[in-house]
Design goal:
Helix content is about 65%, strand content about 0%. The protein has about 500 residues and is mainly alpha-helical. The relative contact order is 0.17.
Length: about 500
Amino acid sequence: MPLPSGCSINSAPLDESEDSEPLIENDAVPPQCCSARLNLAFLMFCGFSVVYGLRVNLSVAMVAMVNTTETDPAHNNSVISACPRPAGSENTSDAFLQPVGIPQYPWDSETQGWLLGAFFFGYLFTQIPGGYLSGHYGGTIFLGLGVLGTAVLTMLTPLAAKMGLYWLFALRALEGFGEGVTFPAMMAMWARWAPPLERSRLMTLSGSGGNFGAFVALPLTGYICQTLGWPAVFYLCGGAGCLWAVFWFAFVSDDPRTHRRISKEERDYIINSIGPQGTGHGWSVPVLPMLLSVPLWAIIITQICSNWSYYTLLTSLPTYMNDIMHFDIKSNGFLSALPYLGGWLFSVLSGVAADRLIERKVFSITVVRKLFTLIGLLSAAAFLVAVSYAGCSHILTVTFLTLSTTVGGVTASGVYMNQIDIAPRYAGLLLGITNTFGTIPGVIAPIATGYFTEDRTLAGWRKVFWVAAGINVAGAVVFTIFGTGKIQPWAVTEEDGEEAEKDRSRSNST
């Protein structure tokens, strides 16, 4: 159904003034309940839940895989500043016993850091190609094969660990290589599927599967490790990914025009509300204007800063809970997961709130993106600093960590949505670019954490939290100054200009 003015939010702006943003109009909207677009968001949500389960399972399983009684005891004399055990656990041992026949390995803190960061070495290389190809061909095949391939490789983890460190490092890097296409493919699909006034809620719902997956996978991994042994973690997580792929390829289509079960009302609504920006970008892309785009670099720098703290907690929090807080592996998994429950809830709620603010014209798109980014990054930084001074208080530590990730979830409707604002047609490619840079902390942060915490002291972990908080603040400042929600000139094609001219003619004739 066409918008009353004949315009769509993604049409080229008619007014080229500095303050102009895409026009937003209300229209009769087909119900979301049981709609094709909501079904797509749900399947994406499940897919990213699996993706993050595959990504974080090693973080908890590492506690069971490592035989701490055989690691280098050279720094034992410096561990005296670490925390006492929780009440009732004083007689337990650091060594985590596995069922008979399950191997354990003498990996020190530095080695564990490299293994946890290995995933991101591969993850770096397929973001941009994945975004480019998804924008041209559609994202269904790339997202589906990305999850399926990672799931199959995950089931080989016990074999790779048995073969040696280098094999395990290479396998994890290869998993990252396969998974790197998933988020750019998601963004490319939503560029064709997400009506502008529903963009925030649909994309945060699908992307929040990452936080939900971490919330489920972390405690479940701890339970499986303790009952079945750590190899079962990788077999079960990999199997879940293979099962999801069956549903994905059976029910998903790249474009509402080709979906077999979508209603005509919904299809017309999506196509007309998105406009010409909801088509593929072809083989040619404006590379040089992208490289010189200040708003794009603002997104890149901000995502690097935000991801540093996120990946630090995602990969190293179970180690902190084990080495410093001395929680047993079941408690470790649950408490490490608790922050991601809050992050999931806040990211979904922020999507609804952002759409309402834009729809009711309370704030412009630019203000909404900056506001949600600023709140998320600064609040998360404040709570990370609080963690560093919580000392050995188990309650305060868990509370502050939970609040940090919970409030940080609102950035899902800020900077992480911004690619599709500034260039909808190229959103998949842009996410590939920004996520490539944003993955650098995933490589460096676990390694840096390993160096900072080599002697397993509170002082070392305080450095970890302070560095993460400072980097968060830097990202908030950069995006507040340089971010925008306007479609960039290099993202507007001749076709968009012709469509805008037709819209102007229709408006003048009414």
